[in-house]
Amino acid sequence: AAIAKGVVVADATCHARDMVNEPAEFLNPEQVATIARGIAKKHKSVTVKVLSAKECEKLGMNMFLAVGRGSARESKLIHMTYKPSKKPKKVQTFIGKGVTFDSGGYSLKPSSGMVDMKIDMAGCAAVVSSMDAIATLGSPNEVHVITACCENLVSGNAYLLGDVLHAMDGTTVEITNTDAEGRLTLGDAITYAQEK
């Protein structure tokens, strides 16, 4: 039994590692959503909801959306839910950073600091992959996995230094460094988790 459990955990760990190692051209927000849907398809106990940028805008997730505004690829909020067959003992939520490529935005990173920035979604890879292990092994708890996936790029539509953003919880945030995108995406993801 211990070996079987170890194999499941190792498979999920390797899956997360494989996601992190994919080039950003392939592993973009839509591809993460496809992976999450694939995991949900394997398990009757798992459902997935993928929110479009428009749906996130309706919820007031302006910090998250600002980070992804410079990309031609649409930002996606991914919400996976595991429900046990019996009444859950408690509810647990795991949130992972899902910036699938981080150029730094207008606070542009040097090439040496940007070359590995496909890994800025390692938190997302960890929590999404963990759902497969959770559903395979079972849990007495209801488990939620949330990741706000986007690319932090430079374009004429990218968010700017000096912008004031309205967070989902009503907080206003002035941007003094566009390379501080993690706290913006995670801030709205945490508020979403608290309200859902």
Span from first to last CA? Answer: 35 Å
Helical residue percent band = 40-55%
Please tell me the overall pLDDT: 98
**Beta-strand content estimate:** 15-25%
Task: Note the total helix count.
Answer: 7
Write up what this structure looks like.
- The protein is an alpha/beta fold.
- Helix content is 42%, strand content 20%.
- The protein is built from 7 helices and 7 strands.
- The strands form 2 sheets. Strands 1, 2, 3, 4 and 5 form a 5-stranded mixed sheet that branches. A two-stranded antiparallel sheet has the order 6-7.
- Strand 6 and strand 7 form a beta hairpin.
- Helix 1 (2-21) runs antiparallel to helix 6 (122-137) and helix 4 packs antiparallel against helix 7.
- The longest helix has 20 residues, at 2-21.
- The N and C termini lie far apart (35 Å).
- The model has no long low-confidence stretch (mean pLDDT 98).
Could you give a short description of this structure?
This protein is an alpha/beta fold and 196 residues long. 42% of the residues lie in helices and 20% in strands.
Describe how the helices and strands are arranged.
Layout: H1 2-21, H2 29-42, E1 46-51, H3 53-59, H4 62-68, E2 76-82, E3 91-95, E4 98-102, H5 111-114, H6 122-137, E5 142-152, E6 164-166, E7 172-174, H7 181-195
Parallel strand pairs: 3-5, 4-5
Antiparallel strand pairs: 1-2, 2-5, 6-7
